[in-house]
Structures are given as C-alpha cells and as structure tokens.
Amino acid sequence: MAQGAAMATEKLAMLKFVDLGQSYPPKRDAGARAEDFDEISDRLDGKAAQAQSARCSQCGVPYCSTHCPLHNHIPDWLRLTAEGRLREAYEMSNLTSTMPEICGRICPQDRLCEGNCVIEFSGHGAVTIGSVEKYITDTAWEQGWVEPVAVGRSRGQSVGIIGAGPAGLTAAEYLRMGGYDVHVYDRYDRAGGLLTYGIPGFKLEKDVVMRRVKRLEDAGIVFHTGFDVGRDASMEDLRDKHDAILIATGVYKARDIKVPGIGADGVVPALDFLVASNRKGFGDEVPDFDSGALNAQGKNVVVIGGGDTAMDCVRTAVRQGAASVKCLYRRDRINMPGSQREVLNAEEEGVEFVWLSGPVAVEGTPHARAVRASRMRLGAPDASGRSAPEPDPDSDFSVPADLVIKALGFDPEDLPGAFGCDDLSVNRWGTLRVDHQSMMTSLDGVFAAGDIVRGASLVVWAIRDGRDVAEHMHKYLKAKARTAQMIAA
C-alpha cells in the first residue's frame, strides 16, 4: 500500500508536459543587456524550476543522460526538484559533475541533453534542463549546501597539473579527494583557463568561476599562476618534483586565414580580443584595450567565423559600443557550428550575419578599412558531413571594417618545443598522443586530458576527461607506491 501510494505521488509530481509548456527564464531586454556584461537571463525561481522539472516524462531510456558527456543523472534530479527535495537534487547533480552551475550556463543544451529529450521528439518542447541545473546549484551555494572538498588521507605522493582550465581543475579536485598533494601550474594570473578569460561575462559571470577556484584553494590545492612550463621549469623539473604529471593545457593557437592584407593593423585573433575584454572586467590594466587596439568602441567590426567563439566576439563588440558588428560566415545558418541560441541572442542585440560569404582580402594599408568577400554556394558534403562552400565567380563585395577579428578556431601549440621535451609524442594534428586505455602520453607518468588530446571541444567534455584521467592517475600512483614499498622492503 505504502509503495503504491509513493508511486502514485511520484506520477502526480511528474508527467506534466502535456499541461505545461516549455519555459525558459526571461531574457533581459536586448537594448539593456547590450549595455553591460551581466548574464542575459534571470534565474528560474523555485516555482518555475519545480514546474519545468515536473514536465520530465521519466522515460525508461533517458536520452538526455545518454547524450550528456558526463552522463548526469538528469531525470533523477529533475524528479527531486519537482518534489521540492532541492538539496537532494543538488547532491545528485554533484555526483557526476564538478561544475554543474557552469555547465548549466554554457553547455549547448540544444545539441546535447535538451536536444535529445524524449518529449522534444513528441512535439511538446524539451524540459529546460540547463536552466534547472543552474538554479539547483546556485541555490546550493546560497544555502551553504556546497561543502568543502572532502580531502582524503595523505598518500605522501604529489601530482603536477599543467593547465588550470576545466579538465585540470576537475582532475585536481578528484585527486585531492584521493589524498594526493596537488599543484596546478598555469600561464595566466588567474585560474580557470577559458572559463575565466575566454568566455564573456554575459554567458558566465566570473564570480561563478572564482568561487569554484577558491573552494579548491581552500582544499589545499596549490596554484602556481603566471607559470610557463619551459620558461619557469622544464618538463623534466616537474617530473622530478611530482609522482605524476597531467597536461591539460587546452588548445590556444589561433587558426589563421591566408588572404592578402591579413597582417594589417586592426586584424586581431579572437582570443586576444576576448582576454582583453575579460581582463577589463576584472579591473586590470590592459594597455592594448586602452589604446583601442583591442577595443571595438566606435568601430565597424567584422568577425570572420561561425563557431561559439565568433558569437562571443560579436556580442562582446556590441557591448563595447561598436558602430556596427557583422559576422561573415562561409556557409548558411543551418550549417554553422555555433549554437543557434547564441545566433538568436546576437541578432536580438543588433549583430548582422552575412551568410555564405568568404573573405578574399583585407583592404587598407597600414590599417584595415574593409574586408573584401566573395559570395559562396554550397556544394557536395565534405569530410565533416556538411556541404562544402564554393566561391561564386564574380561576386566580390566589400564590408567596411576598422577591426577585423579572426574567429576560425584553435589548434594546439607545439608543446614538445615549448616544454623542451622532444620525447613528448604528438599526432599529425599536433594534439598529444595518448594510450586511450590509460590516458598516458609517451612519457611514463605523464598523462593528458581535455582539448590538448581531443582538439578544440566543449567544456563539458573537458570536465569528463578530467574526471576520467584522475581515475587513471590514481591507479598509476597506487601501483607506483606499491612498487616503492616492495623495493624498500
């Protein structure tokens, strides 16, 4: 009887998708949000979060979890939220993710969990999973439910992690929980990697990242910022100092475009532009911003590219007070790699998209004054499965541009050269070669995870890789300790 009553109560709490529609948190007015770098949407309130969670169908095969790289227990924490058991919902979401409130903000849910929601397939509109995830963990921080890292009993072994982005921070947390001394080395003066300096505040406010970093610092993880491996220490120095090393540098080398005039003043890489903007948000002195070199104010801005980084650039330029902002992309809207939600947000904020347009040259010497482009048409699919763009003859046109931002993606840097470590093996794409059974590189005890292995990818995949590599490193370190004990005996 009691079990039947409980099941009946659960059914009453769930399966509301027929009666309740899909609802996202309201966005601030486009004109108002273009004036600042605050997040563009309000947070769901408790009632709205509970209502959206109640729309979950609790299906037998939860495609939302299957298509989440972390395999988060999404239906479980939606049910707990719908039932008003919010602390339990937070604890459930925290089981599989070290940064649920960050994923709730920046994951492309439309391509992952929400895009694969069963009720989305039935025409009822997906549960707004990301918004609920953000609400759950933000509430947990406010209520003091986010507990300190549970540091394990000391094992007397240390780990060095190169890179303080999402993969490195995730691995650092798990390894500290395992009782290891953890040192994190990063070239920037703040931890967080692209979470801190690459993603604008209107998508991810920086205090959200900094409180995660502080939690790790409070757990005894030592951060060495402003530290360049190869300059401040060699790879061999770090290997001598630590029992295992993790390389989680990400990929930062901007892809270039080979057209005449690309070296003109006023043509800048996307990351340089975004880092300068984020540093200003922290209150740092940024000479290249103050001089106007990396500042869009009053300028005609053209961004070349169609990924999420391009969307970050166009929307940042709007907030800096650009006179006009255009995005040139060589394919059409359907075939662009960036989030469609981000495209819509950009359009609302005044960005003009010039589809099927490929740059031919940057005009102007010594300073850029325009981008000459050619109309494109889509041909047969290429290796990516998308239609390959082909130039349409005699279709050139010019777009005025005082600031041209190259947002064509990122490639790995030459880590063997930078680290002074020729034995570090890379593949033909320049990413680190690893044994995928152990995530170890060609060097014993040196592991790698995140974008430096898989290429430029999503934050959620970096978190997944950080979680996985921590397990492999733990196995390696235990075996190393056993061997040392046997030798000592």
From TrEMBL:
Residue span of region Disordered: 375-396
Keyword Metal-binding listed: yes
Pfam families on file: Fer4_20, Pyr_redox_2
SUPFAM superfamilies on file: alpha-helical ferredoxin, Nucleotide-binding domain
Keywords from the named record: 4Fe-4S, Iron, Iron-sulfur, Metal-binding, Oxidoreductase
NCBIfam families in the record: gltD_gamma_fam
Protein name in UniProt: Oxidoreductase
Lineage: Bacteria, Pseudomonadati, Pseudomonadota, Alphaproteobacteria, Sphingomonadales
Gene: gltD
